[in-house]
Amino acid sequence: MSTKFVIEGLKAEIEGKEILKGINLEMNGGEIHAIMGPNGTGKSTLASALMGHPKYEVTGGSVTLNGEDVLDMEVDERALAGLFLAMQYPSEIAGVTNSDFLRSAINARRGEGNEISLIKFIRQMEGKMKELEMNPEFAHRYLNEGFSGGEKKRNEILQMMLLDPKIVVLDEIDSGLDIDALRIVANGVNAMRAEDRGFLIITHYQRLLNYITPDFVHVMMQGRIVKSGGPELAQRLEAEGYDWIKEELGITDETVGQEA
Amino acid sequence: MTTQTILPVNAETLKSVSEGRQEPAWVTESRLASLELAGRLELPKLEKQRIDRWNIQSFGEYKKSQELSSFEDLPERAAQLVEGSREGGLLIQRNSSTVYSKISEELAAQGVIFTDLETAAKEYEDLVKPYLHQAIKADENALSALHAATWNGGVFLYVPKNVEVELPLQAVMLTDDAGALFAPHVLIVAEANSRVTYVDNYVSNDLGDALTHNGAVEVFVKNGAKVRFASVHQLSAQATDITFRRAVVENDGSIEWIVGEMNDGDTASDTMSILNGSGSVSDAKIIAVGSGSQKINYTTQARHFGKNSASQMITRAVMREEAQAIINGVTKIEKGASKSDGQQTERVLMLSPKARGDANPILLIDEDDVTAGHAASVGQVNAEQIYYLMSRGISKTTAESLIIYGFLAPVISEIPLEGLRDQLQSLVERKLGQ
């Protein structure tokens, strides 16, 4: 079955403050969508609300993955349904090794009695780590603890590769990456492009999109998608910035919740 | 207000029990003098805890147990503990007395003594008398006095000069009769440049009624000796466990404490190293899981007298349900103990809103030329971490277990004995109700 991910009128708030004011977006398997926009416009909130972060409360709208109601699911159920979020700030968890964590995550998908064999797991993990040019030692380090920003991002991509999701949301995966790391991360994403997999790439720089060519580009301001287009939109944003859009739409302050 | 301890035994009975066991006169005298002290001293003062509200009256009376004819006579939990790895030596105490004691011929030939303390007091007076109740003195408080009056069974481990014992010597302290006094005393003397590992397990079975364990451990580490002391307490909810452990460490000696506090009942333990010698070292690792409505007080202490002495103390405790824990770390560096280093960390992870944890790091420093540090934290499982793990498809329960094990891992993974590490791991699982 081909993947279909539909966001309709999604509204969300944090601590009583509305951040998302009605997001509409439809993605199909094989497509890459980019969400761009200046800081403070609700991009990361969208990512967190989709995954079910406990701090964000969804107050309206719907999200479905292949017809299933995502908002009705617990966080782990969303992941098992095929949603993956590469986080901007992954948690550090002392005492839990990266490999134990990854194996638990893989086994959660396979269910009891069908756990992956240790040898097969290690082979898969080491193979993917090699593609991402990660030091094999990172398998035995505690999860994200003491990882540099770039190492954390690679570790997010490693998880994505091992978990084989249907919808991948990358939240500012490019922030804090040097050009080499950016290339490696982009290669990882490109290697995962598939007919039944959709990508939603959240970024405020065009540079990642030099490596991963999106099919659709959306611009977020004031908690809404205010403009959508093809890859050429990203090019224009890179060249001219966001001011022309603000002018076109009569927006003076693009951030959320400043109108009051 | 003075809290009077109700003495579980009178002088006459104590004397006749001691004589009935054919104890040397000095032991009988020490017991009687201690009993007299117990009648007038006060209970120990525990940091932020009213121990007088605990059940510290159910001592039971001395009852001699049958010698063990076979390990099959042991309750299952105790039998599991003696499976395998008993090549070095094994001692089993059941209730008031020792029921099994064995040391390998090889170690015995090297002069290592591993027997119950009652026997040792008779047969090795010159090795026992100078040390017994010298690290933990009878006159410190009512409970130390009562212990000195009523101790039974116990362990005496003596390692001669320059002897290095590779295999751990093990003891199992089993209580399965609440009417029987259970007060083992562990005495370890490691002579100069010797090396030894001792592991014991305190376990209970079908107590049937409330029991108070009032135990003591004394370790004497001579110049250049290394003692590794590991102890796991897993007594049931009916048992109140009061345990004082103390090591006296001479020049360049080292003591390593590994303690697993896995009791289900109220527990107060105090594990202390007295670093007398220059270059002496203490390393204490305590892991604990509290559950039910347990009240808990764990204290680790290091007292530095020797120059260049170093202490490291780590406690990690997980509290679930309505367990309440007070966790104290006391590093005291005396005047003259220059170039010493004392470090301590206490961390408590609480798994339920009703669990309570209190970590008190205390540094008392009377010398200028030292380094010392402490860290303490008390907190709930981090919601952000749970979210992160769940976002990868891991269930909430599994996510919490991963975080709990992760919390204990830095201590468990450092435990040098594989069997003990695995045992602690499974005890943690049991205590966490998994």
The SSE string of chain A, one letter per element, is: EEEHEEHEEHHEHEHEEEHH
CATH architecture of the domain at 4-91 and 164-249 in chain A: 3-Layer(aba) Sandwich
Query: Which sequence of strands runs across the widest sheet of chain B?
Result: 2-1-5-7-9-11-13-15-17-19
How far apart lie the N and C ends of chain B?
44 Å
Give the end-to-end Cα distance of chain A, rounded to a whole number of Å.
45 Å
The percent range for helix content of chain B is 10-25%
Sequence of strands across the biggest β-sheet of chain A: 6-9-10-3-11-12
Biggest beta sheet summary of chain B: 10 strands, mixed
Tell me the name of the CATH homologous superfamily of the domain at 4-91 and 164-249 in chain A.
P-loop containing nucleotide triphosphate hydrolases
Please count the helical segments of chain A. 8
List the quaternary state of the chains.
heterodimer
Helix content bin of chain A: 25-40%
Low-confidence stretches of chain B: none
Look at the structure and give the mean pLDDT of chain A. 93
Structural class of chain A: alpha/beta
Protein name (chain B): Fe-S cluster assembly protein SufD
InterPro entries (chain B): Fe-S_cluster_assembly_SufBD (IPR055346), SUF_FeS_clus_asmbl_SufBD_core (IPR000825), SUF_FeS_clus_asmbl_SufBD_sf (IPR037284), SUF_FeS_clus_asmbl_SufD (IPR011542), SufBD_N (IPR045595)
Domain SUF system FeS cluster assembly SufBD N-terminal (chain B): 100-170
Family (chain B): Belongs to the iron-sulfur cluster assembly SufBD family.
Structure description:
The complex is a heterodimer of chains A (260) and B (434). Chain A is an alpha/beta fold and 260 residues long. Chain A has a domain at 4-91 and 164-249: P-loop containing nucleotide triphosphate hydrolases (Rossmann fold, 3-Layer(aba) Sandwich), CATH 3.40.50. Chain A has helices at residues 43-51, 75-81, 98-110, 118-131, 149-163, 179-191, 231-240, 243-249, and strands at 4-14, 17-28, 32-36, 56-65, 68-69, 83-86, 93-97, 142-143, 167-171, 198-202, 216-221, 224-229. In chain A, strands 6-9-10-3-11-12 form a six-stranded mixed β-sheet, sandwiched between helices. Chain A is globular and about 60 Å long. Chain A starts with a strand and ends in an 11-residue tail after the last helix. The relative contact order of chain A is 0.19. The mean pLDDT of chain A is 93. Chain B has 434 residues and is of the alpha/beta class. Chain B has a domain at 11-275. Chain B is built from ten helices and 19 strands. A ten-stranded mixed β-sheet of chain B has the order 2-1-5-7-9-11-13-15-17-19. A nine-stranded mixed β-sheet of chain B has the order 3-4-6-8-10-12-14-16-18, with helices on one face. In chain B, helix 2 (25-40) packs antiparallel against helix 7 and helix 8 packs across helix 9. The longest helix of chain B is centred in the C-terminal third of the chain and has 17 residues, at 396-412. The A-B interface holds A 51-54, 74-76, 78-80, 84-85, 87, 90-91, 93-96, 100-101, 104-105, 108-109, 142, 159, 163 and B 382-385, 387-396, 398-399, 402-403, 405-410.
